[in-house]
């Protein structure tokens, strides 16, 4: 066994060396080479940058004939293009062209969300978040998320109605709302909030509810979905994404749409899931979006079995 392990070790090392020497660049290898690491990080297993959430294009090479300098010029042109009206096609083409340059900046530099928005303002709109998620995963973001959410809703409601005790008491207000004649957006909102409770987490860790005339201070939150209610305090009138103390994306519409776009931003900015909502985001990723759905934690695996039974 030891001999086979050593043989595979040397074989893979030689393969990586050949990949680095070939004409076609491989950024995923270059970024983890020891010579590119800081003096204190020169350890093969330290700070390894690799796909962790089923990303297909985690760190792609630049398009043929393009360099970081030429793509930086395209980025600067994008700053002017976003100021023009009815310019979606040009923006989309340039965003697609500069995708590799943007991923290199995200993966290597781990920039703050606010700083990244200043450099790439075109990314922070609904259409481009969906497009960027598609470039990274090849999955349709909103279509996959909403379809699976609606598909699992009847089964989720049945599982929650079967719960008793303290958890059943916490779920009862949401189940009562679901029994009423709600709009599709309100129904999705209630299902997502009750799902968070069902997983043993707090819906307040993801949602910040406030009135339209007294919005919460964004600087107090690292990652939240701000849900704004009107004067009747019943139906939300808007939702916004708060990241790292800034309202990074207003006007998301419904809470379900905000959850979808938040997942897109998590991939686009290579952000880690908050520990207090690890099961919620695992369900979003693996059950609703179908990314890396084979590897499930025991709690999510149990939920998945119940949903499929």
Task: Write a short abstract of this structure.
The chain has 13 helices and 4 strands. It is α+β, with helices and mostly antiparallel strands.
What report would you give on this structure?
The chain has 309 residues and is of the alpha+beta class. It is 53% helix and 8% strand. The protein has a 4-stranded mixed beta sheet. α8 packs across α11 (255-268). The longest helix is centred in the middle third of the chain and has 21 residues, at 141-161. It is globular, with a radius of gyration of 22 Å.
List the helices and strands and how they pair.
Elements: H1 2-21, H2 27-30, H3 68-81, H4 88-97, H5 99-109, H6 113-119, H7 126-137, H8 141-161, H9 165-179, H10 184-198, E1 207-211, E2 223-229, E3 236-243, E4 246-249, H11 255-268, H12 278-288, H13 298-308
Parallel strand pairs: 1-2
Antiparallel strand pairs: 2-3, 3-4
Sum up the overall morphology in one term.
globular
What string gives the helices and strands in order?
HHHHHHHHHHEEEEHHH
* Number of contiguous helices: 13
Uncertain runs: none
Total strand segments: 4
- Gap from first CA to last CA: 41 Å
Overall pLDDT: 87
Instruction: Strand order, main sheet: write it out.
Output: 1-2-3-4
Query: What structural category arises from helix and sheet content?
Result: alpha+beta
Q: How many whole angstroms does the radius of gyration measure?
A: 22 Å
Q: Main β-sheet, in a few words?
A: 4 strands, mixed
- As a percent range, the share of strand residues is 5-15%
Give the proportion of residues in helices. Answer: 40-55%
């Amino acid at each position: 066994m030891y001999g086979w392990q050593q043989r595979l070790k040397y074989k893979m090392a030689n393969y990586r060396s050949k990949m680095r020497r070939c004409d076609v660049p491989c950024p995923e290898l270059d970024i983890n080479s020891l010579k590119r690491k800081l003096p204190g990080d020169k350890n093969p297993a330290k700070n390894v940058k690799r796909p962790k959430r089923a990303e297909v294009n985690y760190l792609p090479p630049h398009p043929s004939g393009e360099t970081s300098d030429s793509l930086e010029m395209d980025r600067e042109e994008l700053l002017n293009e976003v100021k023009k009206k009815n310019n979606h096609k040009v923006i989309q083409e340039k965003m697609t062209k500069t995708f590799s340059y943007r991923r290199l900046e995200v993966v290597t530099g781990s920039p703050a969300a606010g700083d990244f928005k200043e450099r790439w303002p075109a990314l922070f709109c609904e259409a481009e978040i969906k497009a960027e998620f598609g470039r990274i995963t090849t999955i349709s973001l909103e279509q996959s998320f909403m379809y699976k959410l609606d598909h699992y809703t009847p089964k989720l409601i049945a599982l929650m109605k079967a719960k008793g005790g303290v958890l059943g008491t916490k779920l009862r207000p949401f189940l009562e709302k679901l029994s009423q004649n709600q709009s599709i957006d309100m129904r999705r909102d209630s299902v997502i909030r009750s799902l968070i409770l069902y997983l043993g987490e707090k819906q307040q860790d993801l949602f910040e509810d406030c009135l339209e005339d007294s919005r919460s201070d964004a600087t107090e939150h690292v990652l939240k979905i701000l849900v704004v209610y009107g004067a009747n305090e019943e139906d939300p009138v808007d939702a916004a994404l708060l990241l790292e103390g800034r309202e990074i994306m207003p006007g998301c519409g419904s809470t379900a749409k905000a959850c979808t776009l938040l997942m897109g931003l998590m991939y686009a900015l290579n952000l880690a899931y908050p520990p207090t909502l690890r099961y919620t985001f695992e369900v979003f990723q693996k059950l609703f979006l179908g990314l890396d759905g084979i590897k499930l934690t025991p709690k999510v695996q149990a939920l998945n079995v119940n949903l499929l039974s």
